[in-house]
Amino acid sequence: MNENQPLAGQVAAVTGGAQGIGRAIADRLAADGAKVWLLDFDGDAAALAAVELGNLGAAQATDVTDEASLIAARDAILATDGRIDILINNAGLYPAATIRDLKVADWDQVFDVNCKGVFLASRVFMEPMIEAGYGHIVSIVTVDAYVAKPTMPHYGASKAAVLSLVRTFAQELAPHGIMVNGVSPRRDRDRARQERGLAHQAHPEHTGRPRGRAVRHRRGGGLPRLTR
Ligand SMILES: NC(=O)c1ccc[n+]([C@@H]2O[C@H](COP(=O)([O-])OP(=O)(O)OC[C@H]3O[C@@H](n4cnc5c(N)ncnc54)[C@H](O)[C@@H]3O)[C@@H](O)[C@H]2O)c1
């Protein structure tokens, strides 16, 4: 194994990889040598981001709430690269609303993307991993799955459901050599400051990228090291 590029030769898919945490994870995976497919609802942004990854980047417009769209993405990856080693379930929505104000349609949409999307993508992408007897599935959860947060009832509940899914997938897929993990970043402090109109007070080390725990502490308590 190449020490500097431990993922060389492996192929990864990142849902919602066009921007934010997904984009930062894609950068990290590519830096570790993996070919990275950015699967995002916003196909144009994903294509642009893939160009920036050079020959290790590729993109396909994908809706994680649509099984047919996920199957098309998986099949495009297999047709091009012949394998899928890593799936990062990152696509997620977090519109704020109090329990009193929350619209049922918004509840449904948040659950569709955050929870059903993880279920569908994991189930679609696990097939080639089962065949290979190897794979990693990592889902981006959140601390709000554990800690109650006013204005985030639908978000916290959807991510708590993801935690349960992660545990079930982990048990069912372990016999096939597939490792399943969840990562719970804290809120992106810089983005929170920007949303509150305090951009000038952003963290002094701000790089323009999210600084969630999944990104900053990948080698420690964050993303598990994805090597064979
Ligand atoms: N930003 C934070 O502070 C934070 C903290 C904890 C957890 N998270 C989680 O990390 C993940 C990424 O968060 P972010 O802040 O980078 O989000 P973001 O809004 O910056 O990016 C989300 C991406 O997902 C894509 N997307 C939305 N719906 C989709 C769909 N149906 N199919 C495919 N792609 C879709 C969007 O186009 C976008 O590119 C989410 O799951 C979020 O819940 C974020």
What attributes characterize this protein structure?
228 residues; alpha/beta; 7 helices; 6 strands; binds nicotinamide-adenine-dinucleotide
Describe what you observe in this structure.
This protein is globular. By secondary structure, the protein is α/β, with parallel strands linked by helices. The termini are close together. Helix 4 packs parallel to helix 5 (153-173). The chain is built from seven helices and six strands; from the N terminus they run E-H-E-H-E-H-E-H-E-H-E-H-H. Helix 2 links the parallel strand 2 and strand 3. Strands 3-2-1-4-5-6 form a six-stranded parallel β-sheet, with helices on both faces. It has helices at 20-31, 43-52, 67-81, 104-132, 153-173, 189-195, 213-216, and strands at 11-15, 35-40, 57-61, 86-89, 135-140, 178-183. The chain has one domain (11-200): NAD(P)-binding Rossmann-like Domain (Rossmann fold, 3-Layer(aba) Sandwich). Nicotinamide-adenine-dinucleotide binds at residues 15-16, 18-22, 40-42, 62-65, 90-94, 113, 117, 140, 142, 185, 187-188, 191, 210, 212.
